[in-house]
Please model this.
Amino acid sequence: MRTRVTLAATAALLAAFAVPSASAQGGPDRRVVPLDTARARMLYVSNRPEDHPVADYGRHIEVKAVTDSIFAARSRGVMQYRKVTYRSPVDGLEIPAYVYAPLTPRGNRAHAAMVWVHGGVHGNWTENYLPFIIEAVNRGYVVIAPEYRGSTGYGREFHEAIDYGGKEVDDVLGAYDYLRTLPYVDPDRVGVMGWSHGGFIAAHLLFRGTTPFKAGAAMVPVTNLFFRLAYKGPGYQRSFSTQREVQGLPFEKREEYKRRSPYYHVDSLRTPLLVHVATNDDDVNFEEAQPLIDALRARKPHLSETKVYVDPTPGPTSRGHTFNRRVNRETLERDDSPEQRDSWNRTWAFLEEWLRPYASR
Model:
């Protein structure tokens, strides 16, 4: 399908270049240039949902089953673990989620909780999060990790339901509603955090006019889709322009992309927010992250805690983008650098101030 659309676009371009010059028709002279068909193919971006990038859905389901078995094995004797589903409050879509809790909960409404949001366009919850989840549970938190629409590992229909900055935010909000059903969770002490795309969703949830969350942390968050799609280029743009709820690029859907970009909603922040970014981030480039940091420092200094890490020790992928997600893949334990240790010390202190995980009520 994508090849057919691309060839059609190329044919249209060829036809455009075949039109006689204006000077030949008695008008102002126009320069005629040869068409670079390879470049035309590279730059073409469809806005048709049927052209959304495809994946090996069967293989993803198999990998997800392996990941779930690792969660179960690593949790045994360490913390409660189960996989649940709940309905999204926006349209009733069934959302899978992981729930982690202390082996012996303290009692009625005795625990603070965290909604932890994974990153990635079509990302999913992986075993690399485990050491940080274990640490959170050891500190007294109950953690729920939703696999919002578009996550990988749940088949084609769920994958193609992706709605970046749209309904996925409500999917994650539904995780809070699920936590409210757990008798040992205090609904007045729930926070939200995430990395990258997960930080993007966490920021969205706190930049709404009202939110049930008492604090949030956004690590290396995506902030501005106008800026992001401009420097990421056509390959990345195709994952957005072909989404069912978008169907276009920023120049075509300006208000839609503005609505989906946390940077433009800073003034709505009413809840304490921590943001950590890195200058050597080659996924969410610092040029994208810096305006959000500046806006928070200028307009919400009493509600935000921000830190810019200058060229921190790179993580396993994307250099600074994973500077505080360093994990030994063999042992699944933290692989601390000075910057990772500092980032987490600050994060736990911030969350403890606002969520009081060690208190029973």
In short: The chain has a mean pLDDT of 90. Strands lie at 80-87, 94-101, 111-117, 142-146, 185-195, 215-219, 273-278, 304-309, 327-328, 333-334. The chain has two domains: 1-44, 54-355. Residues 54-355 form a domain with the Rossmann fold fold (CATH 3.40.50.1820).
